[in-house]
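thread: overnight batch results

M.L. [08:02]
morning all. the overnight job finished for the chain we discussed friday. pasting input first so we're all looking at the same thing
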Amino acid sequence: MNQSNHINRNESLDYEIYLQALNSSNSGIIITDNAILDNPIIYCNKAFENITGYSHNEIIGHNCRFLQAQDRSQPQRQQLKEAIENGYECRVEIRNYKKDGTLFWNELFVSPVKNNAGEITHFIGVQNDISERKNAEIELIEEKASTEKKIVARTKELQDSEAFLSSIIQTVRESLLVLDSNYRVLSANKHFLSSFKVTEANTVGKILFELGNHQWDIEALKQLLTKILPTNNPVIDFEVSHDFPYIGRKVMLVNAYRVEFEGQFKDRILIAIEDITDQKEIEQRKDDFLSVASHELKTPLTSIKGLIQILQRVKPENSSEKFNTILDKIANQTDRLNLLINQLLDTSKIQSGHIELHKEPFEIDKLLNDAVSNFNYAGSNHQINLRGKTNAVILGDDLQITQVINNLLSNAIKYSPEDKVIDVQSDKVSNYVKVSVTDYGIGISHNDQAKIFDRFYRAQDIQQKFAGLGIGLYICQQIITAHDGTLWVESEEGRGATFNFTLPIMKIYDNEE
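M.L. [08:03]
and the structure it wrote out:
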């Protein structure tokens, strides 16, 4: 018994050493599960997160191809596909994209992992960022195609032209500031001066945080400029609210970039400030209206629904088929209106930060089975197939997760009117459950995929053909995010869509079957 415990401790120690070794590697390392549909990633080390810019929970469950984004015509993708299908090693140099969209060149080694029976169970991938080498090769090609001296001369001429830089700053209809490395204002355009009711004499040559009565000494902005910008990381769409003298409270979107020039313009900071105060007020009024209107509509609708239910119970036995059909249609439309109002109320709660989670342990397999069964029994013309079993217990609000699944299934049915098959797949991926809902309908364009989870967003062609408010997917994403999971879509126009979400696993229960 003591010997067994000693062996277990040694195995646990070996596992920790292996894990530490993987996380200490400068190369990005991933492991995919060949036994699961689409070969999803089940492990990634810290270097992989650092190279790609994605966090651990944004990586787990994805296929490696998500790093190529829309750059799908690369022949290396076919090489990788064939290697995985045929179970052999492969080395490629491929264009990948970080979370912020930055291109980087990836030297990728893929190798199969086999069990004692010789079966491929996993694939391991090792990647290195070779962007510097590839960029050097590209620069060498470009140097052969043109004269380097002309490029350098022309570039320096533009960089050293103060008139050129000033003309850009003055013509942009947005508040712009140029600072030196000590945060002293070198230039302020007319839009900034008029918007914030200041003069050029009281602005240019002053340190930003000391302007006027220190009105720009905003702690959040100060931390960004003094801590983030020196690392060459840009500030993008950072929202700042502040009370200014004479002009009152302003809500601003701040974008800031550190620009490294040669000559007299070395180490400049460009700050663009967009006043979104009116936009925020309009959004708030719209949210307030939706909240009040939804609550006001809820009360009479509840009464109408109750009266319809009474009519359905007391209708005469000899009532005509037309009467029964009309009454059923009224009931269905009332339920549809009730669902829309509930979605508006959910949106209002999310926007105000009052989304409520009642977390309890629940079995995700049972929840999925019940949801799919309800749709199949509801008389839908679509056949919903459920595959996979996780034996996983999730700590969450089962009603809200059910709402997410119901919404994804309803959308799958709505947007695949011709193809009548919907596939639902569940898998255990690392310490997450991954659920995928796939339809084979109209699909979603790349441009729409980037906005599909935005509140009230609906594609133009969908608006004309299908009814809806454009808030269902927004609510779904907020619910999944509140459960520490991720929700994403994979689609091509005319080839259907797959909506995937992950949820962290609380525990695995014993399979009694």
